[in-house]
Prior knowledge:
Structural class: mainly beta
Amino acid sequence: QNKIVLNTKFNNLVFDKKGWENYIIANGENKFDTNFILKDNTIKIDSLNFKADKVNIKSNGSITIEQKPKLDIEVQVSDSKAENIAPLLPPCIPPEYRTLGKVKKYGVWGDLDAKIKVKGSIPQPDITGYVKGRNVHVLDKSIHNLHKGTVDIVFDKRILNMDILVELFDKQKAKIKGYVYMYRDGINNVTVKTTDNIDFPLAQKIVV
């Protein structure tokens, strides 16, 4: 087995091959530290830490390289901004993760905390954990900084449970609650409750 330790620091990382799905951007000073072991066809990650402007990500676990790679990874995000994490999402996001694709394509603003465990074979591993977003909205100059969304997501293996509150002008609100099956199109149970004069197109823009 081989043990590898990396401690790196870099500024203004930009990887852009044209098109929203292919870029990675990390502005400002970035610190990346990791400690992992290579043994046979397995990468065991003892620790991985990435810090950038308003981004704090920690991870550990293992990756087994097979025809369908197997993951056993835990990721924690704390005191971070969604708008700084979205540009770091990997290029060429597969269809199974289309929600992440929308986040990368349109941009998302807000405060983000998360703790997620991914276990199983790619492209459809089990996912457990949570994502909490506050003051969340998508990038749209016409509504930027005018409205807020509160997002609570709980992953239960292959089911995503959501509890979302959208706040608009004049005390109008929309509550979106329910669950969807992450890897099965059209299988979901979601209810939407609103105040009387909600602007649905605007509410849709605020929370993806």
